[in-house]
Design brief:
Blueprint: H1 2-54, H2 57-65, H3 91-94, H4 105-122
Helix pairs in contact: 1-2
Amino acid sequence: MTPLYFISSMNNELPVSQVEKLARTLFLWKLDVHEQKERVYEMRRWNEALVTNMLPEHVARHFLGSKKRDEELYSQSYDEIGVMFASIPNFSDFYTEESINNGGIECLRFLNEIISDFDGVSRGSEFCQFITYKVMF
């Protein structure tokens, strides 16, 4: 009877150890999936912040709001529109972080003055619904 009991207990132990091994494997996979989900969530937050900083709010909502096909473009029709591009050539040569200009702060202050003056002019009554978007590289 003892050999039969030994064989019977081995048959019961084998599946238990397999179940335990499977449970451990599944637990490790679950941890890995959880970490991957956290990374995806963090990347999505960064992407959303990037899109909302680069695009107007209503355009960002259009692209972030629902799943869009890659080929789907955003467009809107206006009766009258004007687009202006401005640049300050060689600003990077002008910008220095030296003690004479307070570690570069005076250069940035000058750039801010130019942008503020432009924004001030564009807020005049002759510019209805004037929107400025600034992208600096």
